[in-house]
Each structure stands twice: as structure tokens, then as C-alpha cells.
Amino acid sequence: MIRRRPTALAILVLGTAAMLASCASADPLGAGSEEDAAIVIGSQDYYSNEIIAEIYAQALEEAGYDVRREFRIGQREVYLPEIESGAIDLFPEYTGPLLQVWEPDTPARKADDVYAALVETVPDGLQVLDQSAATDEDSYVVTKAFAEQYGVKSIADLADVPVPLTLGGNSEGEDRPNGPSGLKKSYGVDVGFAPIEDGGGPLTVKALLDDQVQLAIIYTASPSMSSSELVALDDPAGLFLASHVVPIASADLPSGAADVINRISAALTPAGLVALNTQSIEQEAPAATIAAAWLAEND
Predict the structure, then answer these.
(1) Contact, 41 vs 56, CB < 8 A?
(2) From 3.40.190.120, 1.10.10.10, 3.40.1350.10, 3.40.50.300, which CATH number describes the 140-232 domain?
């Protein structure tokens, strides 16, 4: 249950702070002070991540905070430097994949271990807020027909498949730990790579079903995973780390704002995230509409 701070009180506090900042400013007109006070929220170029970021934004606005949206700004290689530099104040992230950026050789694999390691590893100037129960983990997916034809149940079984294999995924995935090099290192599996720039969405699924690729990276919270035509492979070597939704924030984020976001994390569930994603994919609802409805239901 999300209980928002009273809007009137939040506005009063922010108004007082703004007056004090204006008086202390070297600029007698206070130019740019309103923009500087806004909490900058970013999102990946991934529909699910944008929905979560929009939930953050609307909840903070209703709590009386000024917010500036910087959504769909790319994948981790693009936006993470902006977070680390302080240009972005708040961002919905995923525990395991982010930990592997800051600690590539981490031994952590389970959810609590990954979260604890992430808290210890976060760079100065940033903080890790509460992780959500909601997960959106990478998974290697094949078609049911492929799995039955070659007796494939786990990633390890791919080593015995007698035909060439091509992995499909966002172009960044070619050089990530769970790309071709990770498959080779952890399972001895050689694959080619085909970039498909839709984050494991309909184009990726179509490429699988059309046998343009035999293996694809698709997130577990994707509505497409409910299809009986797709099979997520087991990962006995733990190539994929636990991946829970987690907000990464500036260390300067107001404590009241952090409380609002933590309550969102507490309310967001795995099934709830799939439902949000389904509204985006199947109903083609915009992120702002989906976020508003979720907040209304969880108020």
C-alpha cells in the first residue's frame, strides 16, 4: 500500500526551501532555480522500464516534488555515465545486471546476495533504494519445437545441438557477460549473434518463430513468455544473476522522495509487473496511462 505524503505539506516545505535558496543565490533573479530543484528521472529505451520510471514520476509529483523526465535515453552503456555524473537523480534499474557492471566477477547469484553486493559496490554519490519483489530477468529462450527436436531443457544442452546457432538480442548484448562470450565461457556453446533492437519484444519473438535465430534473450516479465510456443532454458551455471527492480538514486535525493519510491518498490510484484507490460504490448497503452492506473489501484 502506497501512502503518499500530503501534497500541501510537501509544497510548503519545498516552497520554504526554494525561498531560502533564492535568497542565498548569487543571481538576484534566481534564474534556473526551479529547474535545478527538479528531480531528474531517467529510463531505459525499454517500455517496461519507462512505465516504472513514470510511476516514480507521477508519485513524486503527487507528493509535491518537481520532476523532470528524461525517458528512453538508451541502454545501460549510454545512461549509466549520466547517473554516475549526477545528471540523473533517479533511475529504475535491475540488481544483477547493474552489479555485473560495477563488479564483473561478483560471485553473488541469489537475490539477497546480489542486492547486498550492489549496496556495497555502488559508487560514491549514489545510493541503492529498496529492491522490489518484481523481477525482470534475462533468460535464454528457444521455441518449443526446437526444444523438443533437440532435447534441449537447459543452456548446457545447447552444446549437443548439431546445427549452427544464432543468438538474437539488442546489439549491446553481443559484448555483455551473458552474450556469446558468456555462453562460451560458462557452457562451451558457440553461437553467432544477430542484433534485434526491440528488447526481446515482438520482433525478437518473430525471429525465433521464423528460425532466423534459434536462441534469444527475452526478459522473464515479457508478456510473450506466457506463450506456449516459447521455452525458457534452465541456467545451471548461474550465468544470469537475480534481477530485481531496484531504484538507483543520487545520494542527495530528499529522504521524503526516497520514502515515496521505497513504498512503490514494496507494492510492485512480479505478477504486477507482467500485468503492466501486458497493457503496454497488447493494449498499446501509453506509459503515463498505465502508471496512473497502477497508482490509483495501489493508493
Answers:
(1) yes
(2) 3.40.190.120
CA 250/CA 18 separation, integer angstroms = 19
Question: The C-alpha cell of 49 is what?
Answer: 522500464
3-state secondary structure of 167: strand
Would you say 135 and 124 are in contact if contact means Cβ atoms under 8 Å apart? no
**What would the grid cell of residue 263 be?**
513504498
Tens-binned pLDDT, residue by residue, of the chain (299 aa):
443 444 433 433 444 444 444 444 434 333 344 556 899 999 999 899 999 999 999 999 999 999 999 999 988 989 999 999 999 999 999 999 999 999 999 999 989 999 999 999 999 999 999 999 999 888 899 999 999 999 999 999 999 999 999 999 988 889 888 899 999 999 999 999 999 988 788 899 999 999 999 999 988 888 888 777 999 999 988 888 999 999 999 999 999 999 999 999 999 999 899 899 999 988 899 999 999 999 999 97
| Beta strands in the chain, from DSSP E residues, in sequence order | 39-42, 67-70, 90-94, 126-128, 140-143, 166-169, 192-195, 215-217, 230-232, 245-250
Question: Rounded to 5 degrees, what are φ and ψ at 43?
Answer: -150, 160
Q: In one letter, which amino acid is 225?
A: M
Q: Which fold has domain 7-135+243-297?
A: D-Maltodextrin-Binding Protein; domain 2 (3.40.190)
Distance CA 61, CA 261 (A): 12
Distance between CA atoms of residues 56 and 62, nearest Å: 10
In the chain, what are the domain boundaries?
7-135+243-297, 140-232
Tell me 198's DSSP state. S
Contact call for residues 93 and 244 (beta carbons, < 8 A): no
